[in-house]
Amino acid sequence: MAAKSRHSFVSEIASRYGRRLNRFFSLRLRNRADAPDLAQEVFLRLLRVEHHETIRHPEAYLFTVASHVLHQHTLRQANTPASLDISELFADLQLTSEDDPVSRASGQQKLAEFERKLNSLPPKISTTLLLHRFAGLTIEEIARELGVSRPAAKKYLARALVECREALQEGERP
Questions:
Q1: Closest alpha carbon to 124 in 154, 97, 79
Q2: How far is residue 32's CA from residue 30's CA, in Å, rounded to a whole number?
Q3: pTM of the prediction?
Q4: For 85, left (φ over 0), alpha (ψ -120 to 50), or beta?
Q5: In this structure, which long-range contacts are made by residues 59-66, counting pairs with CB atoms below 8 Å and at least 24 apart in sequence?
Q6: Is there a contact between 167 and 135 (Cβ–Cβ < 8 Å)?
Q7: What pLDDT digit, counting tens, does each position of 78-127 carry?
Q8: Is the Cβ–Cβ distance between 154 and 132 less than 8 Å?
């Protein structure tokens, strides 16, 4: 009986405040597509409340739980490693055939353009890319090495990749 009562309580809350809850998340998230998942997590947590009848202000309780879910989501996102695929960037620099002089010349031009771009970047940004790609350091290790925060190291790497990718693409244009 208690489970049915809990389900009806959560169902009533969902029908009453569901739209506002989705809007609450949509306004606070970078990726709005996460809003329905977070709303579902809130409702699942409400289902786990043993004595829901003791909740005096369901709306306030709902948004308190939503705030906690949002906070936990933000912490998880901050700890998620950046999904940066630098293998594509460096694959463009590899020669296709050593016997083909055109390929070799093109590869040398790309490498020269890459070096020019790398040298034009601020030192922390270029160092971040070199430490990640060639020394194999993680974002956390790079942050410690450079004496910056993890998010800063992540931004440096992302910027370096974008800049180098753009330089390589410019080199392909006639």
A1: 154
A2: 6
A3: 0.48
A4: beta
A5: 59/16, 59/17, 62/13, 62/17, 62/21, 63/21, 63/24, 66/21, 66/24, 66/25, 66/38, 66/39, 66/42
A6: no
A7: 765 544 455 555 555 554 455 667 767 776 777 777 777 777 888 888 88
A8: no
